[in-house]
Amino acid sequence: MPGTQLNPIHGAEPNKPTPQANTSSPELSALLLPLIEKHRGDVGVVIQHFPSGESFAYQADKPMSTASLIKLPLLMATYAKVHDGGVSLDTMITLTEADKVPGSGILTKHFSPGLTLSLRDAIQLMVAYSDNTATNLVIDTVGLDTTNTLMKKLGCDETRLNSKVFRRDTSNDMERSKAFGLGSTSANDMQRMLRALHDRSFVDQATSEQILKHLYDCEDRMKAARYLPANVKVAHKGGSVNAARTDAGIIDLPDGKGAILFCVLTMNNQDESWTDDNEGDVLSAKIGKAVYDYFVKKE
What we know:
Layout: E1 21-23, H1 26-38, E2 42-50, E3 55-58, E4 64-65, H2 71-84, E5 92-94, H3 107-110, E6 116-118, H4 119-128, H5 132-142, H6 146-154, E7 160-161, H7 174-180, E8 183-185, H8 187-198, H9 205-216, E9 234-241, E10 244-252, E11 259-267, H10 279-297
Antiparallel strand pairs: 1-3, 2-3, 2-11, 4-8, 5-6, 7-8, 9-10, 10-11
Helix pairs in contact: 1-10, 2-5, 2-6, 2-9, 4-5
């Protein structure tokens, strides 16, 4: 089958590396810089409003750890391979004891070896519950390097899936694994991916909408969605490890006010706690609330 013909990803040119804010909006800078500057760790942020284009970016080219946010690029790579005919969503996968890994999700704790599930269901578990075992099943089905090949094609040079989850022995770049863990990205890379999904220009409209459906089903509301009204729809994926907390996606605004693309990356965090008030999670939550309120109230 021929390779996927990817439509161009629209949006602003990537920002130059800088520790300062790059923004079209002094108002957004005034809202967000005080939050960012208080954080005890490294931060990369992109905010962009549709359709106005009003934006904010901070250290947006800086390579950062993804934790489970790397599952979003993997999700896109999987659907690109499905579109090419290289794999089917109906492919059946059998869970073995050796497949089980710790961390987030439900397969390891609640299901027995011998369970069979479709690739479609493994993808849903990977995104909705951030299931680590399901993620490795997806990687095994589509190939470890498939994500990195796609990211290179998209110009997302800082985005790399380094290994299977909790399986560093599978690493395709041990130095990068040591530096970033499971994966790496930049806020600008995430902006490019999310803009393509928002515009329905990743592969084609139907593929983009299938991917967004998974992201809308993500059940994590402890980061950017935490302080938003319960009825606000957010298509996103986040990630958490001891010293890194991440979240990226699209917040749908009410009353025809458009949507907010967001990415908040933190790493080298001093707060490595696993409590509800973890500083990295709370930073994402405060940024999510600040930009939501700003654009909802904006005339």
